[in-house]
Amino acid sequence: GVVGLFAAQAIGDDINVYSDESASQVIGTLHTLRQQTRKREGQPNIALADFIAPQSSGKIDYVGTFAVTAGIGLEPIIEQYENDLDDYNAIMAKALADRLAEAYAEYLHFIVRHDWWGYSPDETLTNRQLIREKYRGIRPAAGYPACPEHTEKGTIFSLLDAEKHCSITLTENYAMYPAASVSGLYFGHERSHYFGVGKIGKDQLEDYAQRKGFSVEEAEKWLQPNLNYL
Fold first, then answer.
1. pLDDT tens digits for 77-120?
2. Is 117 helix (H, G, I), strand (E, B) or coil?
3. What CATH number has the domain bearing residue 174?
4. Residue 217, by phi and psi: left (phi above 0), alpha (psi -120 to 50) or beta?
5. Which residue, of 34, 113, 182, 191, has the fewest CB within 10 Å?
């Protein structure tokens, strides 16, 4: 596995990632999406960028990235079981690898909070509390509700040099290989929380396409399940 902790600032719904705290060199930009749902008064539509200090504040904030895998060497094991017509153990091997990857991601997040980033040095939670995510901070993954667009994995992997450091690659459809792998972002803001972007309008889709350097058609391809007009 590999972890990266970077100086960062939000500019609108984007997050600029810097080489160091001088903020003189942008080494990547994370593009987030904002909820566009009708809510009760006083309840804002949020984006992940809201959990990072804006550039206009003059403050340097931080964002983390990570990638872990438990799938290296798994394929020959599964192949042997399948050759032996042992479907049960083939399925169990896949399931065990997936669970190990998720457990690794959970443990690594604890180490980041407690030591490496260190914003929760006194955290003492039970396993049950960890499972219920009672800690400060979140680790959303690209392709999931708060960050539904899969190509953001490309930025995460570039920042981490994930292929070099932990032998995880991305397919042309941005699936991770080996399959028993987990990647995502770390946010440490005390009010950061998980949410779903949900449906977005064509106005935001066009803005997102421009920010990403995509054509509208390409952006629609990647965000089709989230569009409220197709």
1. 999 999 999 999 999 999 999 999 999 999 999 999 999 999 99
2. coil
3. 3.10.196.10
4. alpha
5. 191
Query: In this structure, what DSSP letter does residue 151 have?
Result: T
The answer as to whether 191 is a domain residue is yes
Which residue type, as a one-letter code, is found at position 33?
L
Encoded tokens for 208: 């997102």
Tell me what pLDDT residue 41 has: 86
Phi and psi at residue 118, to the nearest 5°? 75, 25
Number of domains in the chain: 1
Domain assignment present for residue 62? The answer is: yes
Extract the residue ranges of the chain whose pLDDT is less than 50. Answer: none
- 179: containing domain: 2-69+96-198
Residue 73 vs residues 93, 97, 113, 181: alpha-carbon distances, Å: 11, 10, 30, 13
